[in-house]
Amino acid sequence: MSVQELSALHARYVDLSGRFKAAWTFHQFLQGLQNLSVELDLGKTRIDFQVVYGALKDVSQNLTSGAAEKSGMQLEFVARQLGQQMDQLTAIDARVSPSLLRQFFERVKNQDDKVLAQMVRFYLYTTREGRWSDDRIDKVDYLATKLAEEPQTPNGPVAQRDRVMLRDLFAGFWALALPPGEMADPDELVRRRQEIVALRAEVAAAGGLEELHQRGLVRRHRDIKHQLGPLFFEPELLLAVVDANLALKAAVQRSYRLEERQLAVDYQQILEMEGRVASDPSLDRELAELRTTVDQFERKQRQDDVKLDELMAIRRQVQSLLPRLSGPAAAAPPAPGAAVAARPAPPQDGDQTASALPSSTHEEILGPYFQRIVEVLEGTGEAIPPKGVTVLPEVFPLRLEPREVVAFRRLAGNGPVDLELERFLLEAAALRTKINEEAESIMGLLDESAVTRDAPVFGRARQTTRLADSFVQRFQHFMDLAIQDGNFTEAQALQLLRMRLIRDYSGLWLLVNRPTT
Fold first, then answer.
1. Residue 475 · residue 429 · CB < 8 Å
2. Has residue 41 been placed in a domain?
3. Mean pLDDT on 453-462
4. Is residue 409 part of a domain?
5. Which terminal residue of the chain, N or C, has fewer Cβ atoms less than 10 Å from its own Cβ?
6. Distance CA 244, CA 507 (A)
7. Distance (Å, rounded) from C-alpha 516 to C-alpha 213?
8. Where a domain ends, among 71, 92, 107?
9. What is the pLDDT of residue 334?
10. Who's near 382: CB < 8 A, 6+ residues apart?
């Protein structure tokens, strides 16, 4: 066998080895995806990777020996087997949506860049004649951006990895992407790159989610990427794409957290004002639609599958309903934190009483439970350490933590205080009490209403779980502030309270939402 023939044989071995690694990685991804949910049915495959691996290993040991002819026959066998395997995997991939792929990799804590790169290569190997569907572009777009992104803390800044490393990696993708014999038009590459750079500048100038949505920046960015086809992988163009992706992600994350907190506050106002207005069939229908939409939104939050359009749709519903509910006879309660600067003055005799403490911002839902905690703690005095207070006979049934006793004492004292935080901690304690009371009531039901969920306690419990979900989010906000201030002891205490709320809230949520059959 000539040197040229041996070189061609070696090149084919390298190509098939690369395809094997990509197919094996994608097969492992599908296995992990199947384990993500018992309800997910991706079908079965009859793929024996061991046979292909054994043949490739045998070829690698004989390429430079006199058995080159045998190696050529083995590579023909590998090519046929691998082609069939990739066809099976491609058929299954058609049932994997881009959002499902994203959900899987968002749940993987210790991300392996080699896996991400092999996933991209699988799509490159199995996309024929440069015909990229929108879904396939969305998938490789996510994977390439994940490769370009520095690992970050849950609420940390979005940052890009070393561009030299990325350029080399993307050059390898580009070598696989361009159909044989084709050349990219340099003018089109420049024009497309300028489009993406201009859009990134628009993202940076946008004022928030509403402006991003109104100007259609997310949709326009996706449309541009869908039009690229194999040009998507040209290194400089792909670098521009991931630059814009990360800028857009940072803008959305920054605005989303603010929007989500405001939405939780507004929605809670709606729940509290709902009972104060006269019955109106049209309004009742819209409120029912909003509750359904919010329930769907909360489910998608837990699956990490929320889209910008869905959040903005809820925002518009809320903004439409609030003015109609807040008439002269339905004054809305203050938003959390609105009274931070308005601390009530202590009584003249210097003895702060429960009536002088700020009330709960969720008075209709938490008022009695909040008042119960305040009245019990009021009689404990200042001499006993907070931890000792929690085990007093009159306090122990409330299951309070020392930090919650400190919150009461700060609110009842005369010194400077973060009213929003300390009141929130007492409200969270009151919420836990309400959660456990309602859970016991539901578990105590022995009639048909326990199955049909017709008992009034189920309606109250659903309202309670929605409030608890917003409280869990606010705990994260206060923890972030404590960490930013370098107060790690405070952050740890808040994390303990957050986990206690999550544990109790999860129990009630399961009681309310478990299947009826």
1. no
2. yes
3. 76
4. yes
5. C
6. 42
7. 39
8. 107
9. 40
10. 409
Report the alpha-carbon distance of residue 364 to residue 275 in Å, rounded. Answer: 10
Answer with the residue of higher pLDDT: 40 or 232: 232
Give the domain range for residue 33.
1-107
Locate 485 and state its tokens.
Answer: 């201030």
**First-to-last C-alpha distance (Å) of the chain:** 71
**Structural domain total, the chain:** 2
Local structure of residue 61 (DSSP, 8 states):
H
In a domain, 399, yes or no: yes
In this model, does residue 108 exceed pLDDT 50?
yes
Contacts of 60 (CB under 8 A, 6+ apart): 13
Cβ-based neighbour number of residue 62 at 10 Å: 15
Helix-strand-coil split of the chain, %, nearest 5: 70, 0, 25
Of 65, 88, 107, which residue is a domain's last?
107
* Mean pLDDT of all residues belonging to the chain: 79
Q: Does 310 score more than 60 pLDDT?
A: yes
Q: Please give the Cα distance from 152 to 199 (Å, whole number).
A: 24
Asked whether the beta carbons of 91 and 24 are under 8 A apart, the reply is no
Residue 43 has pLDDT above 70, yes or no: no
pTM for the full predicted model: 0.55
CB-count burial class (<10 Å; 0-12, 13-18, 19+) for 75: buried
Find the radius of gyration of the CA atoms of the chain: 30
Return the HEC string of 250-313: HHHHHHHHHHHHHHHHHHHHHHHHHCCCCCCHHHHHHHHHHHHHHHHHHHHHHCCCCCHHHHHH
User: Alpha-carbon torsion 249, 250, 252, 253, what sign?
Assistant: positive
Domain-embedded: residue 267: no
Q: Return d(Cα 30, Cα 34) in angstroms, integer.
A: 6
